[in-house]
Q: What sequence folds into this?
């Protein structure tokens, strides 16, 4: 039985990885299980300099999900290279570094710093606000998305995954823009913009007013977007959005995702990603599927 998948020439032992921002760089979760059980670990977003993130409160629970406005708090590329890469290299899993920035120069600086580091792929978070263009996210303007993809690709030595924002009119327009810019793969979806109001305090539940909504409530939207995108582009898709178990993951795979990322579920169940990987294997045995590639995009 083959569970291996290949994305941009990088072979993963299974199609399960972690969603950026929900797993840190794996240190806490390594106390629960061997990270080598996963196809890849996707790190928290890394910027060229340390980011303090947004003011608190930054997280609020919603029905079947959560809102977060962490603001991509991170220690910066220097600490990441010195501390987190050596830690992850101890495990038999692929390393995907999520890169964030507030300008084209920010992204390119991090990508150049990572060029000679032992990491397998780069995931570019284009849901960051473009400070030079009035705050609209890179991932909400197809021309800006294509341009930032082109600039990152010029400097990257590893395959480039563009992480798409769902907060757009037509996800396929954005996917095609990333593909036209040279993206090797797509991650989707990032969080949906949401809001929660505390009726007792009569104020916003999180200080940023709005936050990114994730968790089971967003899964039907995410599956639909993955399916649409799989029909529109010819590069691999990493599907995510509300995956809590193997059944959820298999929906994404059948819709056209080559791999999947487990995110919010990690907060409720630290074993979630490992259990998803095991559950996919159990499904393949149950239905006598010899090769996971036979499931990718099987629903037309």
A:
């Amino acid at each position: 039985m083959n569970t291996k998948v290949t994305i941009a020439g990088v072979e993963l032992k299974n199609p399960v990885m972690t969603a950026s921002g929900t797993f840190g760089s794996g240190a806490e979760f390594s106390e629960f299980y061997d990270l080598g059980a996963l196809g890849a670990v996707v790190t928290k977003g890394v910027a060229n300099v340390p980011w303090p993130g947004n003011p608190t409160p930054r997280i609020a629970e919603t029905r079947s999900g959560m809102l977060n406005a962490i603001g991509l708090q991170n220690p910066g590329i220097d600490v990441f290279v010195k501390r987190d890469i050596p830690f992850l290299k101890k495990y038999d899993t692929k390393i995907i570094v999520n890169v964030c920035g507030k300008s084209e120069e920010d992204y390119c600086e991090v990508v150049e710093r990572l060029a000679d580091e032992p990491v397998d792929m780069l995931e570019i978070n284009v849901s960051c606000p473009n400070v030079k263009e009035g705050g609209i996210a890179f991932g909400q303007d197809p021309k800006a998305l294509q341009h930032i993809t082109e600039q990152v690709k010029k400097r990257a030595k590893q395959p480039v995954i563009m992480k798409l924002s769902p907060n757009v009119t037509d996800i396929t327009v954005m996917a095609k823009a990333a593909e036209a810019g040279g993206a090797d793969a797509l991650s989707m979806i990032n969080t949906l913009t949401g809001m929660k109001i505390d009726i007792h305090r009569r104020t916003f539940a999180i200080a940023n007013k709005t936050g990114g909504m994730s968790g089971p409530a967003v899964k039907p939207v995410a599956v639909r977007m993955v399916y649409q995108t799989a029909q529109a582009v010819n590069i691999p898709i990493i599907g995510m959005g509300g995956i809590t178990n193997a059944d959820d993951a298999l929906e994404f795979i059948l819709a056209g995702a080559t791999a999947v990322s487990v995110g919010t579920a990690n907060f409720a169940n630290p074993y979630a990603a490992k259990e998803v990987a095991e559950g996919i294997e159990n499904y393949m045995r149950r239905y006598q599927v010899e090769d996971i590639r036979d499931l990718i995009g099987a629903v037309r």
